[in-house]
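Dear support,

Our group has been running a series of protein-ligand predictions, and this particular one with serine is the one our PI (initials K.S.) wants archived with full inputs and outputs. We had some confusion internally about which version of the output was final, so please treat the block below as the authoritative record. The input we submitted was:
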Amino acid sequence: MSKILVLGSGGQIGTELLLSLRQLFGDSNVIASDIKPASPKDLALGPYEELNVLDKNKVNKIIAKYKIEQVYLLAALLSATAEKNPAFAWELNMNSLFYILDLAKEGKIKKVFWPSSIAVFGPTTPRQNTPQFTVMEPNTVYGISKQAGERWCEYYFNKYNVDVRSIRYPGLIGYKSAPGGGTTDYAVHIFYEARKNKRYECFLSENTALPMMYMPDAIRATIELMETPAEKVKIRSSYNLSAMSFTPKQIAEEIQKHIPEFKISYKPDFRQQIADSWPQSIDDERARIDWGWKNQYDLKTMVEDMLKNI
Ligand code: SER
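Confirmed final output from the archive:
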């Protein structure tokens, strides 16, 4: 059985991806790792390594220790946090990628997953139904790191035959893990505040449309892409992926159908500018054609399921 390492397993995607990978491939075949010390719960579930991805030697050692064949590299700073610490965001987001791509180039691992984002696009990109191949002039630190990362992924595939696969995630919404430092995080916070306080002050303005996806779809997409035969994975930079698009006003209205007393107010902060530079909706035809991607959740079914579960 091929061993899998999840770097950043305590994060928003990592937490849920780890659960799904362990269910599919067995607890002992999926090694969790994060910069945080393991909680008793982490340890009970299967192998856990406390690890800073910038510690190249330790990354090497863990890959050798468990004979890792596949790496999901999810450790990163997201868009809002990266604006506050550009130099560290660049170091973390880029160097971790180089370490893993180089290990794959040396034949020490066989397959890599690396997440990209809608943040690779910028203010000069067409914002509606943004195509797979289009103008990309990101103007955030995070977006620049993801765009550069995509170029390097494709380069390592072309030059060194590294089997690296990637998705440009939209904003992700789930109830099993908290988001941290992103511009789309409001779409998760809003549920907790709606339940607890029946009100929410949104840091984006009411008509800011952004592409979003429910976490079960995102996790399934990730594993489906990784399980697709290599020859079908035609795009080695990163795939556009889409499920739904909505504004803060629209999600609030959908929540009000279940919690009529819920009220939303708006106080845009620096994240508004980031959101304004991103697409409003995404064309993901290539993922649908190349590896059969299809989303299951839309705004209505996502809101129903979130409120059922939080
Ligand atoms: N959800 C991410 C963010 O807001 C986008 O990749 O930073």
